[in-house]
Design brief:
213 residues, alpha+beta, 8-stranded antiparallel beta sheet, 3-stranded antiparallel beta sheet, globular
Length: 213
């Protein structure tokens, strides 16, 4: 009992000490919450600004005054290993390890008709790899330059545009123009362009027969 009373007394003294000193309280709170925040960013979700033009018009279209701010979903990749054709992902470049944003075009077993400057007309994606491309073929360095990439290089999936406000919405497959969209408006043109590019991408990919695996 004496030991228990001693522990309680020491706890009360420490608590009183911390309450009287805001700087100490802030430091201790940071020591508790920073590891949790770091774990959420590393294995959960994070918010980042997307730079560059290789994913136009899906991201950072020319008619936007702002850089896109996007929700990056790390959990789907590192824990669920959820790789899907058409997903936009962030990955480490196999050339220089910098973080790049591309779209998954094909997965293992698929056959892709490549684009210049890739030396071979077709590629069968090996196990544990993916073929990634930028939506803007004239402004991107992607698998048509460095070939299939190991899935281990993919760090997160871009899930949702958070800013600018007029483009807020989920990412993934191209959006179908809204029924009330004005024909010829920027949103209508962008949606039509995305759909046409998606059709061209799909025409270049022969999807592996899952029943044979």
């Amino acid at each position: 009992m004496k030991l228990l009373r001693g522990v309680r007394s020491a706890y009360a003294s420490c608590r009183a000490f911390v309450q009287k000193r805001p700087a100490v309280k802030f430091t201790l709170s940071a020591l508790v919450w920073l590891p949790l925040a770091s774990a959420v960013i590393e294995y959960g979700v994070s918010v980042k600004t997307v730079r560059g033009r290789s994913m136009q018009p899906t991201l950072n279209p020319d008619d936007s005054l702002w850089k896109d701010i996007v929700l990056f979903d790390t959990f789907a990749i590192k824990f669920r290993h959820d790789y899907k054709r058409g997903d936009i992902v962030a990955l480490k470049s196999p050339v220089d390890s910098k973080l790049i944003v591309k779209r998954i075009v094909a997965l293992e077993g698929d056959t892709v008709k490549t684009l210049p400057p890739y030396p071979d007309a077709e590629v069968c994606i090996p196990p544990g790899h993916a073929w990634v491309e930028g939506d803007e073929p004239f402004r991107t360095e992607d698998s048509n330059r460095f070939g299939p990439v190991p899935l281990g290089l993919i760090e997160s999936r871009l899930a949702y545009i958070l800013w600018p406000w007029n483009r807020i919405g989920p990412l993934g497959k191209p959006l179908i123009p809204r029924h009330d969209a004005v024909v010829g408006s920027p949103d209508w043109r962008r949606s039509k362009t995305e759909l046409e590019r998606e059709k061209r991408r799909q025409s270049r990919v022969t999807i592996a027969d899952s029943s044979s695996s």
